[in-house]
Amino acid sequence: MNKKELVGKLADHLDTSQSAAGDALNGVLDIITAELKAGNEVNLPGFGKFIAKHRPARQMRNPQTGEQMMSKEKTSAQFKPSVGLKDL
Predict the structure, then answer these.
(1) Whole-angstrom Cα distance, residue 12 to residue 2?
(2) Which family would the database say this protein is a member of (predicted)?
């Protein structure tokens, strides 16, 4: 399922237009993204948890040249499903 199909199903489920459903979905995604950028987690009981995972800089090796170098520190998004979702 892609985003367009998800918006269509959401519009049918809420009995609203696809435009309104798309705005609602975009709003939710924007809020989750902003919270993760701020370093917060977003917990949705019964579904799962979105976590901002910080990865510190580390030393690594270029496999082509064998040269040692430092990777950049970064923050990435991680999703942990709830127990109810795992059982599906």
Answers:
(1) 16
(2) Belongs to the bacterial histone-like protein family.
